[in-house]
Design goal:
The structure holds 2 protein chains of 2 kinds. By secondary structure, chain A is mostly helical. Chain A contains 2 helices and no strands. The radius of gyration of chain A is 23 Å and the shape is elongated. Chain B is of the alpha+beta class. Chain B has 2 domains: about 230 residues, no CATH class; about 220 residues, no CATH class. The two termini of chain B are about 35 Å apart. Classes of the chains: A mainly alpha, B alpha+beta. At the A-B interface, helix 1 and helix 2 of A face strand 2, helix 8, helix 9, helix 10 and helix 11 of B.
Chain lengths: ~60, ~500
């Protein structure tokens, strides 16, 4: 039991260190990520099957393992 | 000491024929595989004629470059990379060759995807105009039908099965937070409120332990078919995982599981006084899958409770200690073992800080980011067919149609290695002997199976070469022998078979 408590206590410091290091870099990266996602969503419109409803409805599989 | 975790992954792919005609999945799966096999035969013949006449090409030319297996009547090919490619339960299935470490296992899993993509191209030439076969590496049709992506791990027969069950279930339940391939909605009654979940498969499991694989599926499958020396070994057949496209998720799925199984073999959980037995494991599987916040505590049998993420942190800490004391030989050595531990920590850290930070590493996060972003941009409801279509299209094996291939996911494997793994066997297991023999003497091999090769020399009875040891028949064992032999008859003579 004592050992378990010890392990559980180890996790939070690790989390704090990571967060402190990542927040400044993270917010800048956040903008980039948003721009990336916007581009990706544009691309999805181009590649997504035309008739989504029919596309989804027709996809019926026999069960497997 | 734990055994080296020889691994193999098998995937049933979703298949659909669009554009008229009879949508018979068995016929379509057969056509797909036959088209691939035929395309290989053509290519190899071309090699022989134009490229490398000096290479030992006896038999490279034959149409039956891929030997049939004995067991079924449906299309069933053994590939020169040591894999089996066949029709199972109305799906094309690729069973990768036996591998001796985690890198190889995911390399051959990704080679399978590439083989399916190549098959689609080859089959396109045989279809009627307007018809199209599409293949998906997923596990559900969104309508309550599921098909599997199984992992196989070599285990020591002497380890009590009850111990395996006890300690592997908590890992199976909690690893979903990084192994999940993501799914829009749920497919069981009572889960109508679920908009998105971590995994494809959690909806389909109803029992803790059992033999079934197609209904009342169990968390731990008891199929006892080791395909090797049954006195010494067991093959743990893991049926509850998702098929991954993400290489990071794929690597962690088999890497952490192989490590946990090695720890179980060495009785590490008991030796460290740990027991994470869940009070209600089947329910917990879905709870974890439905909890995008990763915050729901799961009750343990001993009265404590912890989240899946906390459980994974504890497993990682135990694994680190195990690595220090017992080493990492069981999962392929220090290099691969340390990579597993490092990735494991990286991913748990990311999940703890902000799961969205792993959008280019994990399938469920990458898919969720796309689907929820699209939903917000267009003001769609979660039941909108466009979102369901995106879910499906994430898994299309054709890179030009796949949403996965657009998600900017981190790659761990080099494309040229994947290309080579489509035809070349892994060098460190018996799959090497199988693959090399199929490359050199396809017409002399009457049947190939996981644990044997059967030769037909055109006279005398068929000669069976047993391969009951998964780690024998490697390049180190047989390269010299194969180099000495110019004919299959010489090989058999040398083997004394």
């Amino acid at each position: 039991m004592a050992e378990r408590e010890q392990i559980k206590k180890q996790a939070p410091p690790r989390q704090e260190t990571e967060e402190v290091e990542e927040i400044p870099a993270g917010s800048k990266r956040g903008e980039e990520l948003k721009a990336e996602l916007d581009d990706l969503l544009d691309e999805i419109d181009e590649v997504l099957e035309d008739n989504a409803e029919e596309f989804v409805k027709s996809y019926v599989q026999k069960g497997g393992q | 000491m734990a055994l080296v975790k020889v691994l193999g992954m098998e995937t049933e792919y979703g298949i659909i024929v669009r554009g008229g005609g009879e949508p018979n999945p068995i016929a379509a799966s057969s056509a797909l595989i036959n088209a691939y096999v035929a395309s290989l035969a053509r290519r190899i013949e071309w090699d022989f004629q134009d490229e490398s006449p000096a290479r030992d090409a006896r038999g490279f030319v034959r149409e039956s470059q891929l030997a049939p297996e004995v067991e079924t009547h449906l299309v069933n090919a053994v590939l020169t990379n040591g894999a089996r490619y066949y029709v199972d339960h109305a799906h094309p299935e690729y069973s990768g060759p036996e591998c001796s470490n985690v890198w190889e296992a995911i390399l051959y899993d990704k080679a399978g995807e590439a083989i399916l993509a190549r098959s689609v191209e080859a089959a396109a030439q045989l279809l009627q105009p307007g018809q199209q076969i599409s293949i998906y590496k997923n596990n559900s049709d969104g309508k309550g039908n599921s098909y599997g992506a199984h992992e196989n791990y070599l285990m020591d027969r002497s380890v009590p099965f009850a111990r395996v069950v006890q300690h592997v279930i908590p890992h199976f339940v909690s690893r979903q937070i990084y192994t999940g391939a993501g799914k829009v909605g749920a497919e069981v009654p009572g889960a109508e409120g679920v908009n998105f979940q971590l995994t494809q498969r959690a909806d389909f499991f109803e029992e803790e332990v059992g033999l079934e694989t197609t209904l009342k599926r169990p968390l731990v499958n008891t199929r006892d078919e080791p395909h090797c020396d049954a006195q010494k070994y067991r093959r743990l057949h893991v049926i509850l995982g998702d098929a991954n496209l993400s290489e990071v998720a794929d690597f962690l799925k088999v890497g952490t599981t192989a490590l946990v199984l090695a720890m179980i073999e060495d009785d590490w959980f008991t030796r460290q006084g740990r027991d994470y037995t869940l009070a209600a494991p089947v329910r917990a599987l879905r709870q974890v899958s439905y909890d995008l916040s990763l915050s729901q505590p799961l009750p343990l049998a001993n009265g404590r409770q912890m989240t899946a993420l906390e459980m994974q942190w504890e497993h990682l800490d135990l694994a680190r200690k195990y690595a220090e004391d017992e080493g990492l030989a069981a999962i392929g050595g220090d290099e691969v073992g340390k990579a597993v531990l490092q990735r494991w920590e990286e991913v748990l850290t990311g999940l703890e800080a902000d799961p969205m930070s792993l959008a280019n590493k994990l399938d469920w996060v990458g898919k969720y980011r796309m689907v929820s972003g699209y939903r917000e941009r267009h003001g769609l409801g979660w039941r909108d067919p466009k979102l369901l279509a995106m879910d499906l299209q994430y898994h299309d094996v054709r890179p030009e149609r796949s949403l996965y291939s657009r998600a900017g996911m981190e790659r761990l494997l080099r494309p040229e290695d994947i290309e080579r793994a489509m035809t070349e066997p892994p060098t460190t297991t018996r799959a090497y002997f199988r693959g090399r023999c199929l490359q050199r003497w396809p017409q002399a091999i009457a049947a190939a199976n996981w644990d044997s090769l059967v030769f037909d020399l055109g006279h005398d009875p068929l000669r069976r070469v047993p391969m009951m040891e998964p780690l024998r028949g490697t390049a180190a064992h047989v390269d010299q022998l194969l180099a000495r032999c110019n004919t299959p008859a010489e090989l058999l003579e040398q083997l004394g078979a």
